[in-house]
Amino acid sequence: xxxxxxxxxxxxxxxxxLRLSCAASGSIFSINAMGWYRQxxxxxxxxxxxxxxxxxTNYADSVKGRFTISRDNVKNTVYLQMNTLKPEDTxxxxxxxxxTRTRWEPFxxxxxxxxxxxxxx
Length: 121
Hints:
It contains no helices and eleven strands. It has strands spanning 2-7, 10-13, 18-26, 30-39, 46-51, 57-59, 67-72, 77-82, 91-100, 108-111, 115-120. The strands form two sheets. Strands 2, 4, 5, 6, 9, 10 and 11 form a seven-stranded mixed sheet that branches. A four-stranded antiparallel sheet has the order 1-3-8-7, with no helix packed on it.
């Protein structure tokens, strides 16, 4: 089985920082893109940041300059460094990864369980 385990969420004051981690484990041949999404009550889930297997990154405009996504391919882990946090960043953050379990299989999307990030004013 493949699972994504997240950590690092919590409560932080506006202007503070958090670092989210997401480790993929199980039967993994390779991982394509990895990303972070977030969702607030009553709102659609949105892409926060994404990093390809080659290291190319993509960010939502609202987090550019404040958030940094990175990955460790040896540890099968993706990170989201969140600086200068704002109350608007409050959401459940979900890790996503495209994983293939064998050389022959196509990539399938896997999701983490979500971790709550709350930014107080």
